[in-house]
Amino acid sequence: MVSMTLSAEQRDSAVQELNEYLDELANKEIADPSDDLISSLVNRITAGELTRTEAAQLGVLLLVGGHETTANMIVLGTLALFEHPEQLATLRHA
Predict the structure, then answer these.
(1) Residue-wise over 20-57: b if at least 16 C-beta within 10 A, else e?
(2) Residue 75: C-alpha distances to residues 3, 58, 80, 87, 90 (Å)
(3) Would you say residue 1 lies in a domain?
(4) pTM (2 d.p.)
(5) Residue among 7, 29, 28, 9 at smallest CA distance from 17
(6) Is position 86 within any domain?
(7) How many domains does the chain have?
(8) Which domain covers residue 87, as residue numbers?
(9) Rounded distance, CA 26 to CA 51, Å?
(10) Is residue 54 included in any domain, yes or no?
(11) What is the mean pLDDT of residues 58-67?
């Protein structure tokens, strides 16, 4: 969805698929609520605080933001271990 190598049509398709997936999750949470983030968003829809579109957009932001930061931290952590081989050795023996 955020790839710079995809065409506009491919990105639009990815966005549509993600929105459909999030809508499906919302339907499942409405039918069988649990104590998680999706349920919290669904509760805000039910209370009239958010529209389904707004909740889906928030879900996308959380998903993309969580993915990017996690992926970046894995790369930075790996780089730090390569720059400090003594720490890498400690980790390997732990």
Answers:
(1) eebeebbeebeeeeeeeebbebbeebeeeebeeeebbe
(2) 18, 26, 9, 16, 19
(3) no
(4) 0.64
(5) 9
(6) yes
(7) 1
(8) 8-92
(9) 12
(10) yes
(11) 84
